[in-house]
Amino acid sequence: MEFIDPSLLTYCEDHTSKEDDLLMKITRQTQAKIMMPRMISGHLQGKMLELFTKMQNPKAILEIGTYTGYSGICMARGLRTGGKLITIDINDELETMVRGFFEESGLTSQIDYRLGNALEIIPTLPGPFDMVFIDADKINYRKYYDLIIDKMNSGGIILADNVLWSGKILVEKGQKIDKDTQAILDFNAMIQNDPRVENILLPIRDGVMMARKIQ
To answer: Helix crossing, 21-33 with 42-56: angle to 10°?
Structure first.
């Protein structure tokens, strides 16, 4: 998932504001107790999300894919006074852990944690949203985007994780493409060709697509 030399990555981390005790605890417990701990946002991406959110100063954020709560806490820290983060995840086995982390963060009044199918929950949300972070099942990225784009405020930011898909998006001629890779390729192409947004694909960790709604 990392595309730069490990020593350069360490240098970047050494020159990024440090994780606090809670975020380090979430990282440790995710690595110790959860399968596929690499799915956690982690230090660099978490701080990026936090700073982007603080710059955006949003009133309403939607997160699709809570996992163990790291990214949600980072973004909730950037909400304006009275703002709300709605975060959706389908895995109820992590609920106790995640709610515990949210409680420790002191942000439970700003975090609306919902369990269920995001494709069913999103249509029930009124919006509008100032910021959306998509980090869930890749096969449905385009569906999530279609559901949220009309709920975004003008100038709102959509962030989507894993859009470099461990380099699998570089497909050679004649190579067989699996469904998730094809879904990411289709999503990236859709964003690139959507006149409603301006966008940049950031080579941070496993790739983050940023799209700003302009109309």
So the answer is: 130
167: which 2 tokens? 């380099």
Q: Kindly tell me the sign of the dihedral angle through the C-alpha atoms of 102, 108, 112, 114.
A: positive
**Cβ-contact 61, 85 below 8 angstroms:** yes
- In angstroms, the CA 104 to CA 100 distance is 6
DSSP-derived 3-state class of residue 133: strand
Range of the domain at 195: 6-213
Residues with pLDDT less than 50, the chain: none
Instruction: Classify residue 193: in a domain, yes or no.
Output: yes
pLDDT in the model for residue 2: 65
Residue with structure tokens 């096969």?
Answer: 139
* Rounded Cα distance, 17 and 7, in Å: 18
Q: b/e per residue, 167-194, with b = 16+ CB within 10 A?
A: eebeeeeeeeeeeebebbbebbeebeee
Residues contacting 165, CB < 8 A, separation 6+: 138, 180, 181, 184, 206, 207
pLDDT given for residue 5 in this prediction: 85
Q: Does any domain span residue 1?
A: no
Predicted model pTM: 0.93
> Residue 102: phi, psi to the nearest 5?
-60, -40
**Structural domains of the chain, count:** 1
CATH of the domain at 174: 3.40.50.150
